[in-house]
Design brief:
Strand 2 and strand 3 form a beta hairpin. It contains 11 helices and 3 strands, in the order ααααααααααβββα. It has a 3-stranded antiparallel β-sheet. It has 2 domains: 146 residues, Orthogonal Bundle (Ribonuclease iii, N-terminal Endonuclease Domain, Chain A), CATH 1.10.1520.10; 70 residues, Double Stranded RNA Binding Domain (2-Layer Sandwich). The protein is mainly alpha-helical. Helix 2 runs antiparallel to helix 7, helix 4 packs across helix 8 and helix 6 crosses helix 7.
């Protein structure tokens, strides 16, 4: 199997000095076993730590006021959901090398995240922390709105409510927000929050987002008192 290193280098905008590191970063354990090669697992282990350090440094510059806020924000931006999304957006999945025996092979979300971490580890081993930081900063902050959303903490009650509900075993299909405009001048909106079709509480504000936040804050208090 011919591995297209140049294509990947164009995608990630980084040229490897040691091409073998890049190849290893995309070598699944099944392919490694069949061809007596190292798999991406060791690079993924290294990349996980390098990513954690770089993400912490990026968050430090955001000047969040407490260690708790930093930790929560850090967990959000280096989670598997974010990393697998990066893998999809860059189109890296198709380059993963796995055993030809696995004709029904399915690339999981976790594997996509592992590939991104392995790639970070490979860049770090190739030329050090600066190029790795440049790559991580670029992919994590490519969508500024998503990045900033993921570092919101105590004031983002909608996210807090979502996390609380998921921890309780609810799916996103179990709850919903319904909004209505109360007046145009001055603007006023009301948002009702439902779980399984049952009204839990309402919130109001000059914007729909403000009303959602108020409804979410009330819902958190109500649900925590019931639990």
């Amino acid at each position: 199997m011919k591995f297209d290193t140049k294509k990947i280098e164009q995608i990630i905008e980084y040229d490897f000095k040691d091409k073998q590191l890049l190849i290893t970063a995309f070598t699944h354990s099944s392919y490694a076993f069949d061809n007596d090669l190292p798999s991406y697992e060791r690079l993924e282990f290294l990349g996980d730590s390098v990513l954690g350090f770089i993400a912490a440094d990026l968050l430090y510059d955001k000047k969040l006021k407490s260690e708790g806020k930093l930790s929560k924000a850090h967990d959000r931006i280096v989670c598997n959901d974010i990393l697998s999304k990066i893998c999809d957006e860059l189109g890296l999945t198709k380059f993963i090398m796995f055993s030809k025996k696995n004709t029904d092979f399915v690339v999981s979300q976790n594997m996509k995240a592992d590939i991104v971490e392995a790639l970070i580890g490979a860049i770090y081993k190739d030329t050090g922390i600066k190029p790795a930081t440049k790559f991580v900063a670029k992919v994590l902050t490519k969508d500024k709105d998503v990045f900033n959303k993921n570092i919101k903490t105590d004031t983002d009650f909608k996210t807090q409510l979502q996390e609380f509900l998921q921890a309780k075993g609810y799916r996103s299909s179990n709850w919903t927000y319904q909004s209505q405009q109360l007046s145009e001048n001055p603007p006023s909106f009301k948002v009702d929050f439902f779980i399984d079709g049952k009204l839990i509480c309402s919130g109001s504000g000059k914007k729909i987002k403000d009303a959602e936040q108020k409804a979410s804050k009330k819902a958190i208090s109500i649900l925590k008192n019931k639990s």
